[in-house]
Amino acid sequence: MSELHWEDPVERQIREAMERGEFDNLPGAGKPLHTADQGPGWWIRRYLDRLRKLDAELDAERPVSLAPGDGAVVGDDVEPGDAGRN
Q1: What is the C-alpha end-to-end distance of the chain, expressed in Å?
Q2: What pLDDT, in 10s, does the model give residues 36-79?
Q3: Collapsed DSSP state (helix, strand, coil) of residue 22
Q4: pTM score, two decimals?
Q5: What's the pLDDT tens digit per position in 42-53?
Q6: How far is 82 from 69, CA to CA, in rounded Å?
Q7: How far apart are alpha carbons 11 and 13 in whole angstroms?
Q8: How far apart are CA 68 and CA 75, in angstroms?
Q9: How many Å apart are CA 11 and CA 14, to the nearest integer?
């Protein structure tokens, strides 16, 4: 009886790329990541910083309209459930 072998497609692509040498001679190969001086949780702080920057960029690109009735700003005079009605 033959034994079945399943390999994750992503893992297979990585393995094949390694066999072809596509990861050889990358800049910084074999050098430390310089994260030891950043303390525990450095990666989540870096991730949150990137999210904050992205959010700021998206806010800068988002058009802002304060015209009544356009849905951008809901005032106190709107009853719950009325949002989106014309």
Answers
A1: 69
A2: 667 778 888 888 999 999 888 887 777 766 666 655 554 455 55
A3: coil
A4: 0.35
A5: 888 888 999 999
A6: 11
A7: 5
A8: 9
A9: 5
Buried residues in 17-33 as b, exposed as e (16+ CB within 10 A): eeeeeeeeeeeeeeeee
Report the distance separating Cα 32 and Cα 63, nearest Å.
Answer: 43
Identify residue 81 by its one-letter amino acid code. G
Q: Is the distance from CB of 35 to CB of 42 less than 8 angstroms?
A: yes
**SS3 for 63?**
coil
Say if CB 71 and CB 83 are below 8 A apart: yes
State the chain's maximal CA–CA distance in angstroms. 75
Residue 80 has a CB neighbour count (10 Å cut-off) of 5
Pick from 75, 79, 59: which is nearest to 67 by CA? 75
Residue closest to 71 by CA, chosen among 57, 56, 86 = 86
